[in-house]
């Protein structure tokens, strides 16, 4: 079959794509920026093609092949700031209009469980998108999931942050809300299982795991699985706004995502039973088993995708191109050069920087900078990195975004996503037997210049120590 996969750089699509390719389907991946799509990890696949689209730009969807058999709609904007619901509705309308002009026989859409009488803004938007998709000519199969548990998923990483960082948690009353989590492995099985199944055309199904748990029970079971003793104290005084800040500050999530999550956590997300799993021969995985599977992947460094690497709705290809050109004028720079006896070892250190490896020198200063960033509404240092040894364009490394990464070119370029009065780049290159490290800062007004001079003493120690470690032969 010829299949259109939208949101192909997202968390779910990157898990689904290998399955589709292994089964011999021809897959057209729809992305906003083809440079962010890492085709190398799929090998030389003749049945894989990438097209660039912007679902808010109707004309760009003319690139949809007319002879596709099915399409997956996996576009999601929960982590976007501002009015995401109107953007989601417009994206869905543009998509279904473009799909109606193709030969597609089925659209498969992953939504949220919407059985509660009062829906959150996020879940109401998901339901509205479903209605828009069903207004088209092509039959839609909607799979409605609650919390998805898997290595790299937003829910999993947030629960992990809370459990592993806080021996005692003070939580709001939404901690007693019920949900029915599902393993990412089961989600992918359902998404692939309904493909071309005519009984599923025009129908919607809740997909779910075997356990109905409160958020408190989920946290405590996660702690038990990790052999940690944790205590949770529920208080009635935490408002949604305060809860959002609490979640944002303690975990690696952005404030926009924290706000939307807290909004959704006031709503029970419990599935309506159905026989889809029996029809498809799927065995539901328990919550505890899903946690074990996730940590197996993490420990083997086999995390295929992470929610943190998905670019927000305001992040465009034009922005990436702009950031790829490091400015030369009107900037402050800190340039370091060191000779490396073993350039391969130096290159390995460059491509392993950040996350659990740290920044090689003055890590406590980096952590303090991350703490300050969180205080001022930034992303902080909690995001880490998805894979300990490989990096592709678009990945996050702590509070940096990877703008360019090529071991062949021996170059890594990072763009700062921390809060600061200006823009910053950090670049590493290996040429001949030398390592080049360049920090570039483009200040915004007088405040930006004062900021640069204020941190200059710290930069002297941090950047010298970092390149010395990268180039060292030990």
Note the main attributes of this structure.
474 residues; alpha/beta; 6-stranded antiparallel sheet; 20% strand
Short structural summary:
This protein is α/β, with parallel strands linked by helices.
**How far apart are the first and last residues' alpha carbons, in Å?**
52 Å
Largest sheet: 7 strands, parallel
How confident overall, as mean pLDDT? Answer: 85
Radius of gyration: 23 Å
Q: Which regions contain 5 or more consecutive residues with pLDDT less than 50? A: 311-316
Please bin the fraction of helical residues: 25-40%
Fraction of residues in β-strands: 15-25%
User: Total number of helical segments?
Assistant: 14
Structural class by SSE content: alpha/beta
Strand order of the largest sheet: 3-2-1-4-5-6-11
Shape: globular
Strand count: 19
Describe this structure in words.
The chain has helices at 11-22, 84-99, 121-134, 154-165, 184-193, 215-225, 240-250, 255-264, 276-280, 287-299, 317-324, 343-350, 363-375, 445-471, and strands at residues 2-6, 26-31, 48-52, 70-73, 106-112, 140-145, 148-149, 168-171, 178-179, 182-183, 204-207, 213-214, 231-234, 332-339, 396-397, 400-406, 411-416, 422-431, 434-443. It is α/β, with parallel strands linked by helices and 474 residues long. Helix 1 (11-22) links the parallel strand 1 and strand 2. Helix 1 crosses helix 5 and helix 2 (84-99) packs parallel to helix 3. The chain starts with a strand and ends with a helix. The model is unreliable at 311-316 (pLDDT under 50).
